[in-house]
Input
Amino acid sequence: MTKTFMGYRNPDGTVGIRNHIVVLPTVICANSVVQQIEKQVPEVIGIPHTHGCTLDPVSNQEMTAVLGAIGSNPNVAGIILVALGCESVLLHEVAEIIAKTKKPVETLVIQELGGTKKTIAKGVELAKALLEGAARREREPIPYSELIVGTECGGSDSYSGLSANPAVGVASDLHVDQGGTVILSEITEFLGAEAILADRCASPEVRQQLLDLVDWTEQSLAQLGSSNVADITPGNLEGGLTTIEEKSLGCVKKGGSRTVQEVVGYGQKPSKRGLIVMDTPGHDIESITGIAAGGAHLIVFTTGRGTPTGSPVCPVIKVSSNTACYQNMQDNIDLDAGLVITKEETLDSMGAIIYDEIIQVASGKQTKAELSGNREFALRRYGSGGCIIY
Amino acid sequence: MSQILILNQNVDNVGVALKDIAVGDCITVPAQESGTDRTFEAVEPIPAGHKIALCTIEKGQAVMKYGYSIGNATETIRQGQYVHAHNVRSMRGKELLREGAQHD
Output
C-alpha cells in the first residue's frame, strides 16, 4: 500500500507541506516595506535580504533565478513581490518565473506607488486577501515519494560523522527506497570524500559532472589564498575535526548509500527522483537557501556545536550529533543522534526516528526552528573573476 | 562505553576518543578476526571527540580514518599520541597552492 502523509496539492500538480503567504523584496531597498507589511500582518512570511542590485551580470542572473525559485517553492501558496523600481533584478522577470506555478503573484513597486507608506498599505490589503485564499485550502493524502528532502550539516564536530550524519544517511536510503528525492549539498565538504560518491553515480556523465564540480570548487577555494585560515571552521577544530578531508568523510554519510541520479546547480530544481547532488557552498544559510530554491519541502540539518538556523519557506529539522549539544540548545534542536554514541539507539533505529520525524513535519508538525521564528536567508556570494566565496 | 571508536578496523591508524582520555589510560583495540587485542597507553591527554594514534604514523604518511586519508602527518606521531591540527596537514582545498602539494 502506498504510504502517504497529509499535504497540499498545488495548482501546478506539485505538493506543498506548508501553506505560506510570502512577501519578498526584489532588492534590499524594499526591505522596510516588507518588514512593515509583516509587522501589520504577522501571518505572512517576509523575507528581507541584502541582494537584488549589482553590475555583475553573472550574479544578477543567479539572483533573479534564485529569487524566482524561492517564490516558486511548493510550500508557498501565494506571494507579494516588492520592488523599488530601479534595481538590476527585474521585477517582471522574477514574477514570470513564479507565475509558471499558477499560484497568485502580486507585485508592488515603491517608486510607482509613491513611497513606502502607500506601498505598505496596498501590501497589507493584498496580504490579507492572499491569506483568506490560502485558508480555504485543505491537506489531503500525498505519497511519500513526492517529498523532496534536503540535507545539510552545520557546526559539525567529530561526532557528526559518527552519529547524526550516518543516521540521516539511513533515513535518506529509506526515503529514496520509497521513490522519494534527497538532496546532498555543500561541495566544499566533498573534498577528500568524492571517490565514495563517484563510485555510485547513475552514469559516467553524472560521475564526470560530480568530479568536475568538486575540481572547480577546489580550484575556487585555492584561489581564496592564504592557507593560514583552515578550510574548516574554528568550531570544527575545537570539535575534533582536523582537516577538510576528515570533515567531508563524515559529511557525505548524510547521502546514505543509494545512487547519485543527477548533479544540479545552485538553486536549481532536480529533474529526477532519488539522490541528487546540488552545488552549494559549505556556508549553512547560503546552502539551505539554495536547497529551498531547488524546491525542497524540508531540510534535515545535523549539528555538533549547535545552531538555531531555519529557513523562511522550508522547515528545518535539527539533529544533534551528541547529547550535550541537544541538552545545551533544546530550544533549537529537534532530535538527538547522540543516543547512537551512548548506544541507546543504533544507526538504523535513529534513521527510522529521523524518517518518522520527516513525515510528521511534512504533515504539519512544527520544527523548533519554525517555533522560534528562525528564518535565515542568504544567496551565495561571488568574488572576483566569477569565483564563489566559500 | 568503550574509550575509543575506530571507524575502519582494517585500515585506520587513528581512533576517536569517546570520552576524555588521560595520560596513562590503557586503550584496548579489539582484535581483528583471529588476532589478539592490542593494548597501549595514552601518552598525551586526548579530549573527547578528538583523535589518538593507534600505532606509529611516520612523518609524511597518511593519517587514515573511515578507511581514507584525512591528511599527512607533519612529524612522526607515536602510538598513544594526540593527533590534530598541530601534527596533521590537509592535502586538499587551499593546500593545493602550497609548494609541493598535490593529490590524485
User: Anything to note?
Assistant: The interface with chain A takes residues 1, 5, 7, 16, 18, 47, 49-51, 63, 65-66, 68-71, 83-85, 88-98 of chain B (CB under 8 Å). Chain B has one domain: 4-97.
